[in-house]
From TrEMBL:
Keywords: DNA-binding. This is DNA-binding protein. The keyword Oxidoreductase does not apply. Residues 10-55 form the Helix-turn-helix domain. SUPFAM superfamilies: Putative DNA-binding domain. The keyword Transcription does not apply. GO terms for molecular function: DNA binding. It comes from Subtercola vilae.
């Protein structure tokens, strides 16, 4: 199934801000404007890692490797 959510890694706004090297408020603005897709989980947002990779212009695999190297 191509839309299987078990394969999607979701990031918090703080994690996205760290990856993009911007403030959390900038991430919230991108989410609210629709430039960065996100889902609402309770009172917080979760952003698919692939969406962040698309915005910053790197393939998702490289973004995942960079996140694992930093951990």
């Amino acid at each position: 199934m191509p839309n299987d959510l078990s394969d999607v890694r979701f990031l918090t706004v703080a994690e996205v801000a760290d990856m993009m090297r911007v403030s959390k408020m900038t991430v919230y603005r991108l989410v609210h404007s629709g430039e960065l897709p996100a889902i609402r989980f309770g009172r917080s947002f979760r952003v698919p890692e692939t969406a962040v990779a698309a915005v910053i212009g790197t393939p998702a695999a490289e973004a995942a490797e960079a996140a694992e190297a930093g951990a």
